[in-house]
Every structure is written in C-alpha cells, then in structure tokens.
Design goal:
By secondary structure, the protein is an alpha/beta fold. It has 10 helices and 7 strands. It folds into 2 domains: 113 residues, Rossmann fold (3-Layer(aba) Sandwich), CATH 3.40.50; 93 residues, 3-Layer(aba) Sandwich (Rossmann fold). Strands 5-4-6-7 form a 4-stranded parallel beta sheet, with helices on both faces. The mean pLDDT is 96.
Length: 230
C-alpha cells in the first residue's frame, strides 16, 4: 500500500468527503479493519480564498507547494489537491515535489470518454468555469465543456462560497443548480461535471437523468487506485 499526501481544507466540507470515501473504498478492497495510509495538510482556507480574490495565484501556488514538500518529506509517495479550483496551481505543486501529482482532470476526462460522451455541462466556482486552466484542460483531454451564462456563473459561485463551503444546504440553491443543468442540456450537454468538490453535497445522480461526474468521488477513486497500486 502506498502513502498518499492530501492537500486539504479547501474547503473542510469536501476534505471530509475525500477522507471518508478513500478510507471506505480501501476497507472494501482489503477487508477487516483496513484503512488508507494518508498524510494530510489542511490549509487555512481563508488564506487561499484571499489569494483567489486578489488573483494572487503565485502566492496560492507557493502555499500549496510548501505543504506538498512537507508531505513528501514525511513519506507521501503521491500528492492529491483536494479541490478543483486549486488545480490552477497544479504545475507549481508538481514542480515542487518529486512524487506524482494525481490530477483531477485526468480521471474526470477518462470517465467521460469511457461513457462515449464529449459535450458536458461544467458547474463549479467562477474561476473553474471562466478561467482557461480548467476549460482548456478538458479540451486538451478530448472533452468539450459547456458553461453557464455570466449571471449563473456568479450565482453558483456565491452558493459555493457562502453556503456549501460552510455546510449550508438550501433547497432553493439545489433548484437553481438543477435549472442551470436544464438550460445547459438544451445547449447540447450530454452529461454534467460537478466541477467543485462541494457541489456533490447539494445535488447527486438521483436528481437528473443525465450522467453526473462528481469530481470529488472520481478523484477519490483515483486516489484509491494509486494507494492500492492498481
């Protein structure tokens, strides 16, 4: 079993999901009281949020790179960034360590293409939906994302940071996401990327006939394969 280092706390709500999903899957695979060998650095999310708001991605990258180096120094054999948006600085993190980075877009694109799909709705933070790092990253991997209009981008972003990141779940926010998905389906979306690790706390596959690609779940599965050396 390999030891995985997790860069967490972005937000704590989704980090809990990663931790539980990974450990539960390892237990199912190995039985008994087996659990994953994990190391975690849970950063102060406010520090990251302020970097995002000020577009100081260099500082954000430096924060995560430093923590990744710490995890490697104490035995991590791979690094996972437990957040979609912070994959904007994935290059800085990978360059700071000698162990592999488990990139969220690799597993997301692979699962979408495995279902024979190409055009998918993308929901996430405004950074994820509007910035080239995620949209172009999907395109480079053979997936064409369809993003909401500007007003919807802002409202989804607000819901993520003001509600989901602090554990608030509102029925009206769920309805807003589902209406947005309906609108994107009309534009040709064949599936939906839940491109923020908190969105899966609000909506899930039972809410739609379109296939959902919950990035936190898929990333956790990627982590389990790495840990179990599959």
């Amino acid at each position: 079993m390999k030891t995985l280092g997790i860069l967490g706390g972005m937000s704590p709500e989704s980090t809990v999901s990663y931790y539980l999903n990974i450990n539960r899957a390892v237990n199912v695979a190995l039985g008994g009281n087996s659990s994953a060998k994990l190391l975690m650095s849970s950063v102060n999310f406010e520090d990251i949020v302020q970097c995002q708001k000020s577009a100081n991605w260099q500082k954000a990258g430096e924060i995560l790179a430093k923590e990744a180096q710490l995890l490697e120094s104490i035995g991590a054999e791979g690094i996972l960034i437990g957040a979609n948006t912070m994959h904007k600085v994935a290059g800085a993190v990978q360059n700071a360590v000698s162990v592999p980075l488990l990139h969220i877009l690799d597993v997301v694109a692979d699962r979408i293409k495995a279902q024979g799909l190409r055009k998918v709705a993308l929901l996430g933070t405004h950074y994820t939906m509007a910035d080239n790092f995620y949209v172009d990253g999907l395109r480079e991997r053979g997936v064409e994302p369809i993003v909401p209009d500007d007003d919807a981008k802002l409202e989804i972003h607000r819901i993520i940071f003001e509600e989901l990141c602090v554990g608030i779940i509102k029925p009206e926010s769920k309805a807003y996401h589902l209406k947005t998905i309906e609108n994107l389906t009309a534009l040709g979306a064949e599936g939906v990327i839940l491109g923020c690790t908190e969105i899966g706390l609000l909506i899930n596959q039972r809410d739609s006939t379109l296939p959902f690609f919950d990035t936190a779940t898929l990333h956790s599965e990627m982590a389990v394969d790495f840990i179990l050396e599959k």
